[in-house]
Amino acid sequence: MMLTRLGSLNALEQTHKSSFWRRWLEGDLPSADTVGRVCQLIDVQTIRDVHHELYTRLKRAKALMPAAHGLIMAVIDAHESHATYRRCCDGCLQRTIHLKEGDRIQYYHRTVTLQLTGADWSLLLDAEPIRPGEDEIAAALRLFDRVVDRYPRAFDVVAGDGLYARSDFFNHVRSRGKHVLAVLKDEQRDLLKDARSLCEHNPPIVKQMDRGCRQCWDFEGFTTWPQCQYPVRVVRSLETRQICRQLTGETEELVSDWLWVTTLPKERAPTGVVVQLGHGRWTIENQGFNETTNRWHGDHVYRHHENAILAFWLLTMLACNLFMVFYRRNLKDAVRGAYDMLQIGRMMTAELYQGLLIQPRGP
Question: Considering the entire predicted model, what is its pTM?
Answer without folding.
Answer: 0.92
